[in-house]
Specification:
Blueprint (H helix, E strand, L loop, with lengths): L20 E6 L6 H10 L11 E9 L5 E9 L9 H5 L4 E7 L6 H12 L9 E6 L9 H7 L11 E5 L8 H25 L1
Parallel strand pairs: 1-3, 1-4, 4-5, 5-6
Antiparallel strand pairs: 2-3
Length: 200
């Protein structure tokens, strides 16, 4: 699910992948952000405690046909008092991962508000956004179509390329596929910016 960026671009092999891509991992507290980070880093479940500030890790991720790509992930605490800090972590980022608890229907409106606030910040215009629908393994989790609607992803507009990825961070299902989509969106965005510069 996404807004037209899911096709496999033919230009992917023409970009160097040795420079780390800076990615902010955001979302409400208890959504599973740190579990996502350490599942990507160690490929195993790491028991976590609520993040009081942030975790920063450089992680090499093997992405199918793209080889190994190095990401610098910044996992920022999601408690309400920490959310004003998100702005400084999204500045100059290549992409944003926003983790949503698919089971916690009561807090989806809150998640939507924070997601739109981040996506519509002037500094984040055009920054690709991967929305991770976490905890999809649980029986009472909401489906993707419902999450897309409740998070009003289509209202983000053309300046916020996004992809909604079903996932289970504990066992890792869907995470690499999601990161691969994010990588493709980042490359597509860079190509667009280069073309715009040439036209000026």
């Amino acid at each position: 699910m996404g807004n037209g960026l899911s096709e496999q671009p033919s230009f992917l092999s023409s970009f160097p992948n040795f420079q780390p891509l800076h990615i902010a991992i955001l979302g409400l507290d208890s959504a599973g952000k740190t579990t996502v980070l350490y599942r990507l880093q160690f490929n195993e479940f790491v028991n976590t405690v609520p993040t009081k500030g942030f975790n920063a890790e450089k992680v090499k991720v093997s992405l199918g046909g793209h080889g190994t790509v190095t990401f610098h992930f910044w996992d920022v605490g999601g408690q309400e008092k920490l959310r004003p800090l998100w702005k400084s972590f999204t500045r100059c980022r290549d992409g944003i991962i926003f983790v949503v608890d698919s089971v916690d229907a009561e807090r989806l409106e809150e998640a939507k508000t924070e997601l739109h606030k981040i996506a519509k910040t002037a500094d984040n215009q055009g920054v690709p956004l991967l929305v991770v629908a976490n905890k999809q393994d649980l029986r009472n989790s909401l489906g993707l179509a419902e999450l897309e609607k409740l998070l009003a992803l289509k209202e983000l507009g053309p300046s916020a390329p996004w992809h909604l990825q079903p996932a289970c961070a504990i066992i890792g299902d869907g995470l690499r596929e999601g990161v691969e989509k994010l990588y493709e969106m980042i490359l597509k965005q860079r190509k667009t910016l280069r073309q715009q510069k040439r036209k000026r």
